[in-house]
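Re-running the complex after MR caught last week's input typo. The corrected sequence lines follow. Everything else is unchanged.
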Amino acid sequence: MKEGKTERKLIIDGKRMDGRGFEELRPLKIEVGVLKRADGSCYLELGDNKVIAAVYGPREMHPRHAQDAKMVVIKCRYNMAPFSVDDRKRPGPDRRSVEISKVSREALDPVIMKEYYPKMAIEVYVEVLQSDAGTRTAGINAASVALADAGIPMTDLVSSIAVGKIDGEVVLDLTGVEDNHGEADMPMAMIARTNTITALQMDGHLTKEEFKRGLKLAMGACHQIYELQRAALIGRYSKSEEREERKRE
Amino acid sequence: MYKVVVPGDFISEEVNRAGEGTYVEDGKVYAMSYGIVEEREEIKVVAFSRKYVPTNGDVVIGRIIEISFPYWIVDIASPYEARLHISNFAAGVEKVEFGSMSRYLDLDDFIVAKVMTVDVMMRIELTLMEEFKMRGGGKLVEIPHTKVPRVIGRSGSMIKMLKEKCNCFIFIAKNGRIWIKGSEADVNLASEVILKIVNEAHTSGLTDRVVNFLDSFRRDKGKGGEK
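Corrected-run output:
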């Protein structure tokens, strides 16, 4: 990341600035089916990140020449709201969001059973409403839940989280401050059931040992996230069932 | 009690019973979609929501969206469009000429049709059913096609009960479109009940609850009349 040591201390007495330990996730909140007009949707909060994912389709693929006669085409758009960062962000796609759109699509692609809807398109929209580092991982988590909500045939859910290095320590799930003043940031996405990594990026420097430690940490966290994603999906229906039962009594 | 699963959930080890909505990997059956497990002869996962894709023999209610000789293009509540050939009308002496197609079926007309073929390119050919044109009015209710079996009920129990209690003609097409005909009050009641069934499709003991609901509704109405 940035050259030279920062004056800012990111770790004090073995605790991070927000009081978390090194291997601790920020609070994660997942809500399914928040958008009425989308085929599937999910609202997700990871610490101060707030993202909303919407899935439309399968529906007709435009432009027509981009259709695939054998399988569905997956389109993904990651977009940051102008008010999602401290300084107003210029609206519209930029270099960064185009990259993240591509990375997110490729992270989700392996779980989707594409042969079921030839010639169609599945459109995934991830809107970042508020950001505090790790929006792409939050976006992938939300998108994967939204895809399931849309009834898309999938082999698994995808879970995603970042690890990084601050003050020489490998830590899980960086905040914005930690990301800006830290030494490395490594987002990854994986299929929890099979431990298959579907996306992995790294910014900054990590030694081989640090990389291995970080990956192990992230994989453990992905299992935690997977459980939360699953619980959010299952809870949606058991809750309404309980409500029905109460009404009946 | 219904068991809710998400994609990737392990369901069973009986590979030869794996049915719709599941996939097999390393000799185990996993869920392919977010839905409810249904264990009969086959183990199926019935998705909560999914886009309709027609299969041969489905009876659907379609809407004419385009006329392009010699086909009518039909919207069948699916991502895929269907086509209806003019030969469906050529049985008589008169021939359907170019430019006169709208005399037979015009834009926005609703038809009851059967899916004749679905090819690998997902081109869908329809053929008209006897009572094809939905004349004589009525109301069209659209529900997710995944909930159709629920509205019909086990061996038609739910729909039979609905028809009796609501005193309507009800036609349910495979693509989730329901055509209801009857007096206005009856039609409104029937469509309200159908939406109730859809909203509570994942709960158990639904038929009994719907019967109670309908009975209480009739009773309330009866009381209102006496006053």
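None of the earlier attempt is carried over here. The radius of gyration of chain B is 21 Å. Chain B has a mean pLDDT of 87.
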